[in-house]
Write a structure and sequence with these properties.
The complex is a heterodimer. By secondary structure, chain A is an alpha/beta fold. Helices cover 61% and strands 9% of the residues of chain A. Chain A has 26 helices and 9 strands. In chain A, the strands form 2 sheets. Chain A has a 7-stranded mixed β-sheet, with helices on both faces. In chain A, helix 10 (229-247) packs antiparallel against helix 11 (252-269), helix 15 (322-328) packs parallel to helix 25 and helix 17 packs across helix 18. Chain B is mostly helical. Chain B is 72% helix and 6% strand. Chain B has helices at 2-24, 39-58, 61-85, 98-106; strands spanning 27-29, 32-34. In chain B, strand 1 and strand 2 form a beta hairpin. Chain B is globular and about 40 Å long. Classes of the chains: A alpha/beta, B mainly alpha. Chains A and B meet through helix 8, helix 9 and helix 18 of A and helix 2 and helix 3 of B.
């Protein structure tokens, strides 16, 4: 059985998918386009049900790619059931999409989601009357709290009902949606809740909003770096011991397993605590409803750099991974703002770069590690904004506009936080088991052959050939090689340093280390990000992005080296 | 509003001590030595103080509630940071705002 989940953006479709599948879902793209497709399987009453989370849409009138993808999926793939996820807090606007969905003639169920929040706001919805009017089963749910999920599962097993068809013009449908909403929903209180009002007053205060935002960002970095550190060290020690033990055994296979696989993959996997803590912090900010406030708060600032508030979501997501962040730029309607946001996104320091900072900061800046790492993140943001301004003043000139909706504040549930953090961390672990594992073996091979020692290896030849390019920064050929392998995935920089067994404290000074960290922050995006950029905005812009970021990285790290020497 | 003013002064004091600790290393208060001061921690404490102050000036309790939330979260974080790194900051004293925050949330 295949169920298509359709609804407006931010109605909790992903939370519902989590609740229905127990987090057992994969993220890929719809065929031929780069619109994100979440697909998961759940077992309901012994029956395997496949859920496909379609992109969030408001209707089917425009030429928007998300709408086209959703429409094509329903028409071509013919799902057995449409699960229309409706935000109980904004019934009228959501019902407009529901009325359009009735025209497909596919059995439907309505999940009246965020019902707990609506009830807190004093909104009472008569779901039986709504079901009667539309001719569909209606189930009240709160995906975040896990409420109504069992009832929804029962209705899914029953297969839903083909609804009454509501045809008519756009204006007629809008009017009808309003009439239905007024009939079935009664509001006992007017306006937002007291706590929402209180939080908004302060979090979006014109004087304090930005300092509070920066304070929260700082707390996130302390959480990611300082608090995760003991776990990180423990894992590092375990992998080091394991690698030495295995490589100590006789034979090339044990050498490859110990010095290549375990040393390389282990040096990256030991940063899982940092990555998981970062994702946990980001999930708390997203699920609590603070993140959209941050978007609103920075809109004025972003406008000064030729972007808009919507650009901040892909930019903040870029702190996790640049690939989904590049895809997330689809929510930006203005094409020029979108291209600028895609090009600057790799300057946002993704989680793959965190292991590099943690390694170097731990060795060269043991006392001020958090501050150095936060400085790197801020430098990335600053360079991204300056680049955006330069692009919008030259290649991407033009005006833009911005509208957005603020969801209510919520206390995230532990289950939701766990699922969100786990799904994202799992992606990192999978990468370690595939790309990084393969690269570790390649790095091990080119560092051991043909001569048997690193000095006479292929890696040495490659690193030494390219080293003169980086001589102004004074980096050794081993570090240059780490940068080259980092092109595949940024974590591989650390894996290469691990495999080469480089004692970085003895081959560079603190200012050279800082310049190296700056270079890894800014130089060309990884292969996956380049592929995403190419798919989103074309080959020409992808090539431009690669050359632009390399030039910026080279210039900035050279300046940092020179300033360091001068100081 | 008296509570907001008291907390303003309290967090201003913590901010000043944190700056001293960041600039000159260890700051000893009786048996308590703080060695993990940082300018950015001082910025957070200063922001909390400013939020309480604005609440007192505009006579709105919402500012004290949010400031107490930030102070409590920062305090928990600094206690965890102490456990992880053995380096202590004046941010840990933010726990003094926790009862006020809990009272407001219950209300």
């Amino acid at each position: 059985m295949r169920v298509a989940m359709v609804g407006n953006p931010n109605v909790g479709k992903t939370s519902l998918l989590n609740a229905l599948t127990g987090g057992n879902f994969t993220v890929a793209n719809f065929p031929g386009v780069t619109v994100e497709k979440k697909e998961g399987k759940g077992v309901i009453g012994g029956k395997v049900v496949t859920f496909v989370d379609l992109p969030g849409i408001y209707g089917f009138e425009t030429e928007n790619l998300d709408e086209k993808v959703a429409r094509d999926y329903i028409i071509r793939e013919k799902p057995n059931l449409i699960l229309n996820v409706v935000n109980a807090l904004n019934l009228e606007r959501n019902l407009y999409l529901t009325l359009q969905l009735t025209e497909f003639g596919v059995p439907m169920i309505i999940a009246l989601n965020m019902i707990d929040e609506a009830e807190k706001e004093g909104i009472r919805i008569d779901e039986e009357r709504l079901s009667e009017i539309l001719g569909l089963p209606v189930v009240k749910t709160s995906a975040v709290r896990g409420e109504g999920i069992e009832e929804l599962k029962k209705e899914i097993l029953k297969g839903g009902k083909v609804p009454k068809v509501f045809r008519g013009s756009l204006e007629e449908k809008i009017e009808l949606a309003g009439r239905i909403a007024r009939e079935v929903a009664k509001s006992e209180k007017v306006g937002v809740s007291e706590i929402d009002e209180a939080f908004d007053e302060v979090f979006m205060d014109k004087h304090l909003g930005i300092p509070i935002f920066l304070s929260i960002m700082w707390m996130m970095f302390v959480f990611t770096y300082t608090i995760a550190e003991p776990f990180n060290s423990l894992l590092g020690k375990i992998f080091d011991t394991l690698a030495s033990y295995i490589s100590g055994l006789d034979g090339w296979l044990f050498s490859m397993l110990g010095d290549g696989v375990v040393a390389g993959v282990g040096s990256v996997l030991s940063f899982i605590p940092n990555i998981a803590f970062l994702f946990l912090a980001l999930s708390i900010l997203e699920l609590s409803g603070y993140m959209p406030r941050a978007v609103y708060l920075v809109d004025g600032l972003m406008a000064r750099f030729g972007l808009n508030g919507r650009s901040i979501i892909p930019l903040i997501m870029g702190f996790g991974c640049n690939v989904p962040a590049v895809l997330a730029t689809r929510s930006i309607e203005d094409e020029r703002v979108r291209i600028a946001t895609v090009i600057i996104n790799p300057f946002m320091s993704c989680s793959a770069r965190l292991p590099i900072y943690v390694l170097f900061a731990g060795i060269f800046f043991p006392k001020t590690g958090s501050a150095v790492i936060m400085a790197l993140y801020l430098i990335g943001v600053l360079i991204a904004l300056i680049s955006a301004l330069a692009l919008r003043k030259t290649l991407l000139k033009g005006e833009g506009e911005f509208i957005m909706e603020l969801p209510p504040y919520m206390l995230p549930s532990l289950r939701e936080l766990w699922l969100m953090t786990w799904v994202r961390t799992k992606h990192f672990i999978q990468k370690a088991g595939t790309v990084i594992l393969a690269m570790s073996v390649v790095v091990w091979y080119i560092t051991n052959y043909p001569g048997g020692s690193i000095e006479s290896s292929y890696a040495a030849m490659l690193g030494k050939a390219l080293q003169p390019l980086f001589s102004p920064m004074g980096w050794s050929w081993e570090l240059v090689l780490a940068l080259i392998t980092g092109f595949v995935a940024k974590e591989v920089v650390v894996a290469t340093i691990g495999v080469l067994n480089v004692d970085i404290a003895s081959v560079m000074t603190p200012h050279q280390a800082f310049a190296f960290m700056l270079f890894t922050l800014l130089y060309m995006p990884c292969v996956a990000t380049i592929a995403a950029i190419r798919a989103e905005i074309g080959t020409k812009w992808a090539i431009f992005g690669v050359l632009f970021s390399f030039a910026v990285a080279y210039m900035v790290s050279m300046i940092a080296t020179e300033v360091g020497v001068w100081l | 509003m008296v509570v907001a003013l008291i907390f303003t002064l309290y967090f201003l004091l913590l901010t000043a001590l944190e700056i001293l600790s960041a600039l000159y290393g260890d700051v000893t208060l009786g048996w308590w030595t703080v060695d993990g001061g940082s300018v950015i921690n001082a910025f957070v404490l200063g922001t909390i103080a400013a939020t309480y102050l604005k609440g007192a000036v505009v006579k709105r309790e919402s500012y004290s509630t949010v400031a107490s939330l930030l102070a409590t979260a920062f305090s928990v974080l600094m206690i965890l940071a102490y456990l992880a790194s053995q380096s202590i900051s004046f941010g840990v004293f933010g726990f003094a705002a926790a009862p006020y925050f809990l009272k407001k949330v219950k209300k």
